[in-house]
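Let us practice reading a record.
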Amino acid sequence: MKTLITGAAGFIGMHVADELLKRGDHVVGIDNFTPYYSLDLKRARIANLAARYGDQFAFKDVDFGDANALAQVLADVTIDRIVHLGAQPGVRYSLENPAAYIHSNISGHVNILELARHRTISHLVYASSSSVYGMRADTPFRVADRADTPISLYAATKRADELMSETYAHLFRIPQTGLRFFTVYGPWGRPDMAVWKFTEAVLQGRPIDVYNQGDMLRDFTFIDDIVNGVVLALDHPPEDDKREKPGGFTTPHRLYNIGNNLPEQLTDLIRAIEAACDRKAEINLLPMQDGDVYQTFADIHDISRDLGFAPTTPMAVGIPAFVDWYREDWLKRP
């Protein structure tokens, strides 16, 4: 079984590739190393996989937003399934560079759908986001809830991806699963996200910027739990049985939330980082930023019922695991 993973140099992409390779699957990873955050980190992730798995892992440097380049690079590559995790991430950056989101998240998603269509892929699993729910007051967020009031361009592109996937599932019967991720963190994580930024600042004795005066709730989800959900979904494609699936579709297409099912205050995250670092944080309280949401909270009933997904990693375990990796592996790298 050979799986194509887009965004293989990314945080979730590297970990999903690692899990599939560990069990003996062959993986073709693609990425184009956009400089949104540290290229050293992205290259280190790919080097880690290549060193551990050899010929079982193949990597191609290509921009999947460029249809011609994607077709050329994969012309002689056989693939059975796709895990499409590549995207332009970040809510705040979408205010500065909207074109990057249209290129990667809209054009790029269509290119992957076309690849799945013409290669007769057995299952396409793709990344959506909890951002599609917008500024909701009622929780937990359910897949059955309306998701038509995004408050950032990033969120709008992710909801557009879901709708385009439904069109392709209807027209071409491509089995697809869209996964709405909730605040993923852990070793090899992203430097633009709170867990990394806060840990780095605490260890360096710098103040941390905390928005909405610290009154924000997030469903923090450890990477191992996310990977488990992705692989469970990948191994169990939806049936083309005309029955309604999570997301409301009767095509072979479904949507799932993947979260910890436990919203926690940003102040709780800071306390956990302080404890893991054995240092106090200097906090700079700021107002809410444009595009941010007050809370996220994943209802995971659908994926738990259908696939047996159950997160097992509390913040008390996940935060020390990240801090240990950051101090012992990342900061001490050659």
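A brief commentary: The first strand starts at residue 2 and ends at 6.
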